[in-house]
Design goal:
single chain, alpha/beta, Rossmann fold, eight-stranded mixed β-sheet, 46% helix, globular
Length: 261
Amino acid sequence: MQKIVIANQKGGVGKSTTAINLSAGLARQNKKVLLIDMDPQGHSTLGLGVRTENKQTIADLLCQDDCDIKDIRQNTYIEGLHILPADVSLAVAEYKLSQLSAKEFTLRRKLESVQYDYLIIDTSPTFGTLLTNSFLVAEHIILPVQLGFFSLAGINSFLETIHHTNRRVGSLIGHKTDILGVLFTFFKTKTKLSKRVLDSIYELFGEKVMQTKIPENVKLNEAQEKGKSVFDHDLNCAGAEAYHQLTLETIERLNVYVRNR
């Protein structure tokens, strides 16, 4: 099972959009996919039209010993794609979780028995117990970035977060999370600043910068409003083509990782 976390400590960079459409893209390749929404905003949940009213969510899974995956897992309208949904209750759960012993390993422990081809984790933009739990499940990170000054400014902090988690916590269980790919979102290079940021990202990450670029595309927002993937909203739009290419590139990068391991 390949486990990928979509993460960046800056908000508004397309994490949930990527989590939704990469998951949908993998399901379209006849893969069995579990999407885990670890963001209290619940955007992946909302973006797939999944409801949480009067239902247990990832918050219950993390905080209740007797809550199991099967109690909260929901089908999505996409064949082969299941979700562990989230809503604002996850913010309260994070505080409760932070008071527990071995809190960093809770999600990992709860997922021990799941069997999927791909596990995709959407995350919040803040560093805390939820993000640490996500890092200690996933082996790979896709880092979405925009071509803006603030995106570049926060990258060193994000990298230090990864190194800290690997060094201080992951080493206890022989686990390491590393960047599989850096993904440009809302992509356009019309300004000198954006071109400087682009060059800086390539200098920092080299071959880890993904060939796929996600363009600004109104169809991506429209799809989320309708609770659909972009493939089911407008298969022929630029956003759908980009996420199809991202799906194929992600599969290939993972294959290379496995061959070189």
